[in-house]
Design brief:
Number of domains: 2
Distance between the termini: 82 Å
Order of helices and strands: HEEEEEEEEEEHHEHEEEEEEEEEHE
Largest sheet: 10 strands, parallel
Number of strands: 21
Structural class: alpha/beta
Shape: elongated
Radius of gyration: 33 Å
Number of helices: 5
Helix content: 10-25%
Length: about 375
């Protein structure tokens, strides 16, 4: 029978083998865990980059015309091959580029492809060779909306107009760029004139041919949309202060959109731009305004003041199907020396912020190739 004997140095190789096996298992687990963490981080980073790219594109399309937002944008994108900007967002940024695909052809608007590459800077992705940031690129086709405001008259009042004293309300284009429009436009039978020194002008000087319902349908203003915030305001009252006359005098290119929620607000000084008032509004003394005035309620104009652009009052009648009211109580009042002139150049400047890219339906694409 063989005799068992202790073999020297057998435990050491076995220990080394066990340690090697355990080390390999730990290393494999570490590599697997690291790969899983990297994959999860990459997936989350890609989702964040996707959200950044989409948000950057939407901000570009809405805010492109804001002063200082796009330093590489042309005044007229239809005349440029491309324009671009970087939109900085929490956790990253989006490089947005608009490329003109087709110029304006007749009445067909110019066509653009807008590409937005979002980059997530909140976390770097560590791979086997380098460390980088997650990116994602989206794109869409869009048209450039050049429509501003379809002016029907120098002063259109859905609630009617009471005119006393002297003055001129003229639909003849003061800057001579467009054809003449009506001077005064009100529903049939809702113009009340006292005194013989009022001289309207335009084509026609006074238009009272439409019924109340017909005029509501012809106004062409989405007042419900404006009330809900479709036009972004530069100044909101209450909450902010109306720009001073010095502000307008020192910056002749300043044409703000001023949203007024205060009832019976009175124009404090001269200026320019677009005024959007939810309810009643008044202009007194010698204050002057260049641009667009949109009044939801009653507009009262007293004293010797001048407005050059376009004025629309009584717009709350477009909400909720209000019935015709021919009483003089609800009518706009124009008292004293009045000069209300149609000026298409001022209208264009006041509504310049409304010009923007409009995405085409079913034209959005994901995972756009970047270059």
């Amino acid at each position: 029978m063989p005799r068992l004997r202790n073999r020297r140095a057998f435990a050491l190789p076995m220990t080394i083998l066990v340690i090697a096996v355990i080390t390999a298992a730990v290393a494999a687990t570490y590599v697997s865990t690291t790969a899983e963490l990297t994959t999860n981080a990459a997936q989350r980073g890609t989702e964040r980059a996707y959200n950044i790219a989409e948000t950057g594109m939407e901000e570009f399309m809405v805010r492109r015309s804001e002063s200082g937002f796009c330093s590489n944008c042309a005044s007229d994108p239809t005349a440029a091959d491309s324009e671009w900007t970087r939109v900085t967002l929490p956790g990253g940024y989006a490089d947005v580029t608009s490329i003109r695909v087709r110029p304006m052809i007749g009445s067909n608007a110019a066509l653009f492809f807008i590409r937005s590459r979002g980059r997530d800077t909140s976390q770097r992705l560590s791979g086997s060779a380098d460390s980088t940031m997650a990116e994602h690129t989206v794109g869409t086709y869009a048209r450039w909306n050049t429509a501003t405001m379809n002016v029907k008259s120098a002063w259109l009042s859905l609630s009617g107009l009471n005119k006393s004293g002297t003055g001129v309300i003229s639909g003849v284009d003061q800057c001579g760029a467009n054809a003449s429009v009506a001077g005064v436009m009100v529903p049939k039978g809702d113009l009340n004139v006292s005194g013989g020194s009022f001289h309207p002008a335009g084509n026609p000087p006074v238009d009272t041919t439409n019924t109340y319902d017909q005029l509501k349908n012809q106004t062409g203003i989405d007042w419900a949309g404006i009330e809900s915030g479709s036009i972004t305001a530069d100044i909101t009252i209450p909450g902010q202060s109306f720009p001073s006359s010095t502000t307008f005098d020192n910056n002749t290119s300043y044409w703000p959109v001023i949203r007024i929620h205060t009832n019976n607000f009175s124009l404090p000084n001269h200026g320019r731009g677009m005024i959007i008032a939810d309810s009643n509004f008044s202009i007194s003394g010698s204050n002057m305004w260049d641009g667009v005035i949109l009044i939801g309620g009653k507009l009262t104009s007293n004293g010797n003041n001048t407005t050059a652009g376009a004025t629309v009052s009584g717009l709350n009648d477009l909400l909720g199907g209000a019935a015709a009211d021919t009483s003089v109580v609800s009518d706009a009042d124009a008292n004293g020396q009045k000069t209300y002139l149609y000026n298409s150049c001022n209208v264009a400047k006041a509504t310049a912020g409304l010009r923007k890219y409009v995405a085409m339906p079913n034209a959005w694409s994901d995972n756009v190739a970047g270059w």
